[in-house]
Amino acid sequence: MQIDSAFTTGLQGYQRAEQRVGQASEAIASVNGASRESGAAPVEITDELINLKLGELEAGASAKVIQTASDMLGSLIDIRV
Fold first, then answer.
1. Containing domain of residue 75, as a range?
2. How many domains does the chain have?
3. Which pLDDT score is estimated for 73?
4. Spatial distance between the Cα atoms of 7 and 10, rounded to a whole number of angstroms
């Protein structure tokens, strides 16, 4: 596995987590807002809270991937120097 691809995978996972959390947060914030007045589909707050937790876990896992790739790169630099 190339270190660049590990960084890329970790970054993409973190960005997906950020999107998931953002969407869930917006949905939760709109529960008592204009969405009910406009006739939009009702928001299941439990589903959105689950999405928030999934986003948190996904971000944590992605951060670990990035940290591991960083550690591997540091080890390679130490070996080569």
1. 3-80
2. 1
3. 82
4. 5
